[in-house]
Amino acid sequence: SQQGEEDPQALSIQEGENATMNCSYKTSINNLQWYRQNSGRGLVHLILIRSNEREKHSGRLRVTLDTSKKSSSLLITASRAADTASYFCAPWMDSSYKLIFGSGTRLLVRP
Amino acid sequence: EAQVTQNPRYLITVTGKKLTVTCSQNMNHEYMSWYRQDPGLGLRQIYYSMNVEVTDKGDVPEGYKVSRKEKRNFPLILESPSPNQTSLYFCASSLGVPGLYGYTFGSGTRLTVV
Asked: What is the mean pLDDT of residues A63-75?
């Protein structure tokens, strides 16, 4: 299975600090996606990083991918209270037709 | 606005009473999928559809049915709901395989079966 496992399960930081979440997976992948979910709402696609990319940026988000360690990290810089949400990674293999999500990291940004 | 629309948003029903949760997308997406989300279990895929009249089971299909008669609609049918189907349900669509294009999710349907 190419399911990702996010770590930590929960993270609490002060507004303005950086938040780092990690994702590990077990098989070789073609790309990896990160999603955000605000409480009880649908997931929102944040970023996709391909297996031949090491780092990708989108606004205050920075994603890294280390295929040798089968891991990815999501960094949110200068966090805001509005970043409070759960964050999920979803690794992808081209031979699969399913995108599998882990249990996510719950991020709380305190004002 | 490009979106996936699910209805209803909340539903309380009784055991055994057939129900349908509707899902519609306005983005001409090929791929659609249903997930359920339960505490501690994350999101689990119920069914998916790669195109009209093409559906396949996900990881937890028991007790559910789907159909894809039109590209935009992908209803989820519970023929005889049971309390273990109490969950938060999400419909999602993608331009093609979601691993290449990413998903657009609906806002969710919170179902309670008593």
From this structure: 97
Rounded to a whole number of angstroms, the distance from the CA of B51 to the nearest CA of chain A is 13
pLDDT digits (tens, 9 = 90+) for A12-29: 999 999 999 999 999 889
Alpha-carbon span A33 to A63, nearest angstrom = 9
Boundaries of domain holding A72: 5-110
The domain spanning residue A33 has which CATH number? 2.60.40.10
CA distances from B52 to A97, B47, B59, B76, B78 (A): 16, 14, 21, 15, 20
In chain A, positions 67-106, which contact chain B (CB-CB < 8 Å)? 88, 90, 92-94, 96-104
- Please report where in the chains the tokens 């969710």 appear, as a residue: B108
